[in-house]
Design goal:
By secondary structure, the chain is an alpha+beta fold. The protein has two domains: 155 residues, Gyrase A, domain 2; 70 residues, Beta Barrel (Elongation Factor Tu (Ef-tu), domain 3). Helices cover 16% and strands 35% of the residues. The strands form three sheets. Strands 11-14-13-12-15-16 form a six-stranded antiparallel beta barrel. A five-stranded mixed β-sheet has the order 8-9-7-1-10, with no helix packed on it. Strands 3-4-5-2-6 form a five-stranded antiparallel β-sheet, covered by helices on one side. The N and C termini lie close together (12 Å).
């Protein structure tokens, strides 16, 4: 996708504010929140003590004592409640905000002036170009064609951008999604954070994990939950889509014995395994 296109999306926002807000998040997030300059954004995991994923969020430092965390739709309250469990004798407040958002994708996405209070935020994923708009008054940019929800879903699948509740859940560890997501979302120099031990141990071993997120290109449409018949542990399609370029595609966590190029079947449909992003 090179020509810019846009679509309104649903994102949940958790605002953390107060004198201890940054220090509190420094111990809860995998990212170096304290090292972020005001006005900058990156991504972070909020993990369980065992290193499994509670949330993957974009984190934005909006003031010396205020940070925004935005997550996939439906997971704002989950993130709020997870942080609140650790909010003990801490001068910080948590608030879930209902703000509009817009996804803009494409190499030449316009970057004009924005209404007051609207943030232009970076997106991540191998080869992903564009940005998100977030905040009261966020709207489709002038002169940009619209895209469908199915198009945005297919764009995420072919670039390997994970979704909360599908690729990212309490059974996922960050390294399974790909090296890029660990590099983007984890600081190994900031000091301790919840879930650090497993995350650091896997990184020190070269990121070797029993399964990896792959994309399967199929001969016919497939669906979320379809079983992938392949070597190794049982696998299912976590997100299925139809790409304008590649046809029916789906993400799945496949055992390390399943190499890119392997032939598999998905719900009885023949398919081929590829690395992410799908070129």
């Amino acid at each position: 996708m090179t020509e810019p296109r846009a679509i309104p999306i649903d994102r949940d926002v958790v605002r953390v504010s107060g004198p201890d807000a940054v220090a509190f998040l420094q111990g809860q997030c995998s990212q170096d929140v304290a090292g972020m300059a005001v006005g900058t954004s990156t991504h972070t995991f909020v993990l369980q003590p065992q290193g499994k994923v509670d949330a993957w969020a974009r984190v934005t430092r909006t003031a010396a004592d205020e940070v925004l965390l935005d997550v996939d739709d439906g997971f704002g309250q989950v993130l709020h409640d997870r942080l609140a469990r650790f909010l003990i004798r801490t001068k910080a407040e948590l608030e879930v905000l209902a703000w509009p958002a817009v996804a803009v994708r494409g190499a030449d996405a316009p970057r004009g002036e924005l209404p007051e209070g609207v943030l232009r935020l970076p997106v991540v994923g191998p080869g992903v170009e564009g940005y998100d708009l977030l905040g009261p008054g966020a709207a489709l940019p002038d002169g940009v064609a619209t895209m469908s929800a199915d198009d945005l879903r297919a764009h995420a699948v072919v670039h390997g951008v994970p979704a909360m509740g599908r690729e990212l859940s309490e059974s996922t560890i960050p390294a399974e999604v790909g090296d890029w997501i660990v590099e983007e979302s984890v600081s190994f120099t900031k000091g301790c954070f919840v879930g650090q031990e497993l995350t650091a141990r896997i990184d020190s071993r070269g990121g070797n994990v029993p399964r990896r997120l792959r994309v399967v290109v199929c001969d016919a449409p497939i669906a979320d939950g379809d079983v992938v018949a392949a070597a190794g542990p049982p696998a299912t399609i976590t997100t299925a889509a139809v790409s304008p370029t590649h046809g029916p595609v789906g993400l799945a966590f496949l055992g390390r014995a399943v190499e890119p190029g392997a032939a598999v079947t998905v719900g009885g449909v023949p398919g081929t395994v590829h690395e992410l992003p799908l070129r």
